[in-house]
Amino acid sequence: MMRAAGHITAGIGFALGLALLAGAAGAQTAPTRDDIVGKLDHFEEAAEVDLPALKQQVMERAKARIKNDPGPVNRPLIAPDLAKLPAFNAQIQFDADTPIIQPDSYQTVGRIADAMVHASLLPYTFLIVGHVESNSKTREANAILSQRRADAIRDVLVNTFKISTKRLQPIGLGEEQFLDRAKPTSAVNGQLQILTFAKVPEEAPAHPAAAPAPAAKKPTRKH
User: Fold this and answer.
1) Dihedral of CA 88/184/56/191: which sign?
2) Most distant CA pair in the chain: distance in Å?
């Protein structure tokens, strides 16, 4: 009887140990505010990227029917300068083929918002970069989806977490810039990126209204 009890106790202890290890592993993979700040706060210089032009280039390239397309593995990056910027890659879950954020991912979005209002990141603006993995859909459909997902994250950061819209620029790169070019179908390519993009532009000081010129004195009439 004592031996059986010992086996039961050992079994419970082993199970608890596994549970603790699993919990620790889960805690390590969950990003904290400090994790995100640490990835984003070593900004050196802004990338020379024309965002409106880049959006147009993404759509034009995604729509193009190139006869000798090198394929997703060898496709050239559409915005290589973005790789120079501090980046945090976020595992945000969306409903399939939609920009709808799943409830479990709101905690991660909230932590991104917390990081953005940290003292060391307040002087900066950020890119929200949408990506997708290569799949059965067209490159054009994936480019549109990646932009809509980036827009959705921007909207939540602004409307729910009150981040200034002036500090956020969403851009979807679709299949035109994979995070893992060697494995285009990998789920890694579905991650969303936050990039420290530039310093917040300083607002020009308001000029005080000029004081009105004194009225000219009328000459006095001599009587």
Assistant:
1) negative
2) 133
Residues spanned by the domain of 150:
51-63+83-199
Q: How many domains does the chain have?
A: 1
Sheet holding 192-199, edge to edge: 87-90, 192-199, 124-131, 168-174
Model pLDDT for residues 61-107, shown as the tens digit of each residue? 999 876 677 777 888 899 999 999 999 999 999 999 999 999 999 99
| pLDDT tens, position by position, 134-168 | 888 899 999 999 999 999 999 999 999 999 999 99
Question: What is this structure's pTM?
Answer: 0.77
Region label for 97, one of left (φ > 0), alpha (ψ between -120 and 50) or beta (otherwise): left
Is the alpha carbon torsion for 177, 183, 184, 188 positive or negative? Answer: negative
Quick one: which of 91, 111, 95, 201 has its CA closest to 156?
A: 111
Query: Are 167 and 200 contacting, i.e. CB atoms less than 8 angstroms apart?
Result: yes
Contact 134, 145 (CB under 8 A): no
Q: Does 37 have pLDDT greater than 60?
A: yes
Rounded to whole angstroms, how far apart are CA atoms 174 and 62? 8
Domain assignment of residue 2, yes or no? no
The separation between CA 214 and the C-alpha centre of its own chain, rounded to angstroms, equals 56
CATH number at residue 171: 3.30.1330.60
Dump strand ranges (E) for the chain. Answer: 87-90, 124-131, 168-174, 192-199
